[in-house]
Amino acid sequence: MGQSRLADDPTAPDRVERMTADVPDAAPRQRRRWRPRTVVLATLAVPLICALLWARGLPAFVAWEAAHDHETCFGRARLRARVWSSDPAEIRAWLESRGTPVQPLPARRGGVEIVGVRYCALTDRIAAHVYYGGQGSLVSVLVMSGPARIGEGWAGKVGRWQVRLLRSAGRTVAIVGEVASDVDAIAHAFAQTAA
Q1: Is 166 a member of any domain?
Q2: Per-residue pLDDT averaged across 37-42, rounded?
Q3: Is residue 152 situated within a structural domain?
Q4: Range(s) of the domain holding residue 134
């Protein structure tokens, strides 16, 4: 009584065989073999990635990032800022409320004064970008995240931009502008407040 009709039917094995004949067998698993080209590419990729990670901390690369951001931000038809203010304490408080420690910012140095701030995404890091402007001169102060091997500081040119890199409040600070005296004046103000 509990047996199925299929078990009693002498043609049942034939029917099961016919029903399963159309189902393809699962292909046997093949071992994945590395092709020589894949091995070569993997072998080249590892040192390349290591070299890029190492190079990102070089002063020349950090200076290029800062100069590029300065040119991008000031090259727009309309300068963008999250906070517009000539009060350096207000800008510093805004940065610190977002987790970016910074030394006291100078209100005015050389021919420029503080006007605003925002965060900018650079090639491989984020920077707090403080804007200075006046008398036809524009200066950027970028408080950068991420590593930079600048030692006691670095000074040089990237294209037409003067760039100074220094340490302040445990961060790398890049100061960028076209007029060397304005860039040096802001850098000197940071050096004084860090001492």
Answers
A1: yes
A2: 72
A3: yes
A4: 57-194
Q: What is the per-residue DSSP string for 5-43?
A: HHHH-TTHHHHHHHHHHTSPPPPPPPPP---HHHHHHHH
CB 141 within 8 Å of CB 47: no
Nearest to 139 by CA among 71, 62, 60: 71
In a domain, 146, yes or no: yes
Residue 92 to residue 94: CA distance in whole angstroms: 5
User: 193 versus 93: which is more confidently predicted?
Assistant: 93
User: Is position 62 within any domain?
Assistant: yes
Q: What is the pTM of this model?
A: 0.72
Residues 6+ apart with CB under 8 A from 105: 88, 91, 92, 114, 130, 141
The CA radius of gyration of the chain, in Å to the nearest whole number, is: 32
Task: Specify the residue for token string 């001169």.
Answer: 137
> Alpha helices of 78-152 — where are they, by DSSP H?
88-97
- β-strand pairing of 126-134 with 137-144: antiparallel
Mean pLDDT of the chain: 82
The CATH number given to whatever domain includes residue 112 is: 3.40.1000
Please enumerate, as own/partner, the contacts of 13-21 that have beta carbons within 8 Å and a separation of 24 or more: none
Q: What is the pLDDT of residue 179?
A: 93
Domains of the chain: total: 1
Question: In the chain, what percentage of residues exceed pLDDT 90?
Answer: 49
Separation between Cα atoms, residue 25 and residue 38, nearest integer Å: 31
